[in-house]
Amino acid sequence: MLVPGMNSRNLAEVKVWDVPVRIFHWMLVLLFAFQVYSGKTGGNVMVWHMYSGYAILALVSFRLAWGLAGSTHARFANFLTGPAGALRFARKLFSREPVAFAGHNPLGGWMVVALLFSLALQASTGLFANDDIATEGPLAVLVPRAISDRLTTIHRWNAYALLALASLHIAAVLFHWIAKKENLVGAMFTGTKRLSPEAARQAATARLASNWRALALFAAAVAIVYLVIKRPF
């Protein structure tokens, strides 16, 4: 959002989102959309539903690691605030005050955490779930049927929670675009944001982590998920 007396010429383009965060975001969007479709369709497509779930589990595992060892704006320490900070931001959100942040704003940061938690819960319960017909998760044989059924119920209900969170996230993005004139979608494609001089100065101290580090962490996440699923030992 423009501060009073500022026009678009005063805004600076600043690199905010690194390549790993952007790839993670859009891959997750595509996989989540496919999960909704395949989960509703059932039948033979459930095989791909499971593969997609494994991919989501690997992506979420990577994002958790990147939140600790990634670029400045990808780190949880950079965008998570306490309840008081989130409340202060919420009060500004519907005012005429500028609310632009270089990275995630306080409410957006907690939305990231909520989505990651719900996605992790969905993918992990799916490993133990069954559909009472022909499909069951690769770890369902390790637990009693009653526990598998209970985790299946959690998996089913958490899907609705995920849809609610995703809808809220989309609504927030649209609000920032229409009311606050912040193109958050474009920034997640290009990696850059147009920021006020003050916000740009704060973002100038940010560091981009190596893409090779991201690749190594993602490879480790894929390997861990593979070992969990295949249990070769």
Beta strands, count: 2
Provide the CATH topology.
Fumarate Reductase Cytochrome B subunit
Protein structure class: mainly alpha
The first-to-last residue Cα distance is: 55 Å
Q: How would you write the strand order of the largest sheet?
A: 1-2
CATH superfamily annotation = Transmembrane di-heme cytochromes, Chain C
Order of helices and strands: EHHHHHHHEHH
Sketch the major β-sheet. 2 strands, antiparallel
- The overall number of domains is 1
Q: In the CATH classification, which architecture applies?
A: Up-down Bundle
Q: Class in CATH?
A: Mainly Alpha
Q: How many helix segments?
A: 9
Give keywords:
233 residues, mainly alpha, Fumarate Reductase Cytochrome B subunit, two-stranded antiparallel ribbon, 9 helices, 2 strands, 65% helix, globular
Textual characterization of the structure:
The protein has 233 residues and is mainly alpha-helical. The chain has a single domain (8-230), classed as Fumarate Reductase Cytochrome B subunit. It has nine helices and two strands, in the order E-H-H-H-H-H-H-H-E-H-H. A two-stranded antiparallel ribbon has the order 1-2. Helix 2 packs across helix 5 and helix 2 crosses helix 9 (211-230). The radius of gyration is 20 Å and the shape is globular. The model is unreliable at 1-7 (pLDDT under 50).
